[in-house]
Design a protein that fits this description.
alpha+beta, Creatine Amidinohydrolase, Chain A, domain 1, Creatine Amidinohydrolase, 2 domains, 6-stranded mixed β-sheet, 5-stranded antiparallel β-sheet, 12 helices, Xaa-Pro peptidase family protein, Peptidase_M24B, Creatinase/aminopeptidase-like, Pept_M24
């Protein structure tokens, strides 16, 4: 994945910031184009850090554990300055192992914080306006930053990254095409076995097997496959078995693993013998979602997209209430992020946005519905990225 470092530098300048300390695994990946292994596994602040200057002529500096520095140097290909901090791993030289050479231990073990302090000062940012991800950083770590750089002025840039990620690069769009194809294969396989007598566990196992077999994605651990009453609440797949007249619902996705990108798609299939009101509701929800997709194009205010779906459902079902009808999606672990398709977001749609357009309705203790597709905004309209999974069986 190509780094988006220049995009972040541009936004930092627009915000009047001199630089940023990038701490979360996903935003480290966004800046550099790759992720640190231990950083991703642990999600601990400080395991890998990128310090970005808003100036174009100042290269970004990275630090990671000594054990991972060679990997960072390969992946950076000379674009970034890579600095190591010392750890307990204790990598040996071949001379030590083969010949018994004695290599003195370092006099001082430099920590991640030690190297961070050097990078920030070398880049002339210690007394400047610096962006940090306050939505990610633990309070204790942030307090340590304030103590390390008492003359710096810190500003939360968590939303800056969400804004940057809301419009995808061509490479990111191809990533979503790949992921959505894998998800689509898994969902279509599920549609072939969804019938009375099949359990929720069988549905999710079929999804997982099919997605893994694609070789390009991993099934999201949060993926929910439900039937009947369990579809009316937030849950994970259990022992419920599809009954005649049930609504079979899934809300699921796949992940790009160490590239962080993720998907979010839903279907609701009404089994034969259901109450006619359920068929009527399903049709209305589906038609509302199709109307959103048909209207989506660059320049359309997002709150208008919301009302296209919401008002259409409410016209037939006056009790319908829903705070949003979808959301942007980019890098996990979260699936939903701004902009949300809600009544207050006036931001216009832009080519390159990828949105999960959804029209759900949950009937407490009875059944649940969600109709959701991944949709790419194109220069002259939009493209459904999950077109193959049927909305009707």
């Amino acid at each position: 994945m190509l780094p988006k470092e220049n995009r972040i530098k541009e936004l930092l300048r627009e915000k009047g910031l001199d630089g940023a300390i990038v701490s979360s695994p996903e935003n480290f990946h966004y800046v550099t184009g790759f992720a640190g292994h231990q950083h991703t596994v642990s999600r601990q602040a400080g395991f890998s850090i990128a310090v970005v200057s808003a100036r174009e002529d100042v290269p970004t500096q990275l630090t990671t554990m000594d054990f991972e520095v060679p990997t960072f140097e390969i992946k950076s290909a000379g674009r970034f300055i890579v600095r190591k901090y010392d750890t307990w791993v204790g990598v040996k030289t071949w001379d030590e192992i083969a010949n018994g050479a004695i290599v003195p231990a370092p006099a001082v073990m430099e920590s991640s914080s030690d190297i961070l302090a050097k990078m920030v000062r070398e880049m002339d940012l210690a007394d400047k306006k610096l962006g940090v991800e306050l939505d990610y950083l633990p309070v204790g770590y942030y307090n340590n930053l304030c103590g390390m750089f008492p003359e710096a002025k810190f500003e939360n840039i968590s939303e800056l990254f969400v804004y940057a990620r809301s419009v995808k690069t061509p490479e990111e769009i191809e990533m979503f095409r790949t992921l959505c194809r894998a998800a689509d294969e898994g969902f279509t396989a599920v549609s072939r076995i969804a019938r009375p007598g099949v359990s929720e566990r069988e549905l999710v196992n079929e999804f997982r097997r099919t997605v893994i077999a694609t070789g390009v994605a991993a099934p999201s651990g949060w993926s929910m496959f439900s039937t009947g009453e369990s579809g009316s609440r937030l849950t994970i797949p259990g022992d419920a078995v599809i009954q005649r007249g049930d609504v079979v619902k899934f809300d699921a996705g796949v992940n790009a693993e160490f590239d962080f990108y993720t998907t979010d798609t839903s279907r609701a299939w009404v089994m034969e013998g259901a109450d006619p009101a359920l068929y009527k509701l399903k049709d209305r929800l589906y038609e509302a979602q199709r109307r959103m997709i048909a209207a989506a194009k660059p320049g359309l205010p997002i709150n208008e997209l919301y009302h296209i779906a919401y008002d259409y459902v409410k016209e037939m079902f006056p009790s319908y209430r829903r705070g949003h009808q979808g959301h942007s999606i980019s890098m996990g672990p979260a699936t939903a992020e701004a902009p949300y398709i809600n009544p207050t977001t006036t931001r216009p749609l832009e080519a390159g946005m990828v949105l999960a357009m959804e029209v759900p309705c949950y009937i407490g203790g009875v059944q649940g519905f969600n109709i959701e597709d991944m949709v790419l905004i194109t220069p002259d309209g939009c493209e459904v990225l999950t077109p193959n999974t049927p909305h009707y069986l």
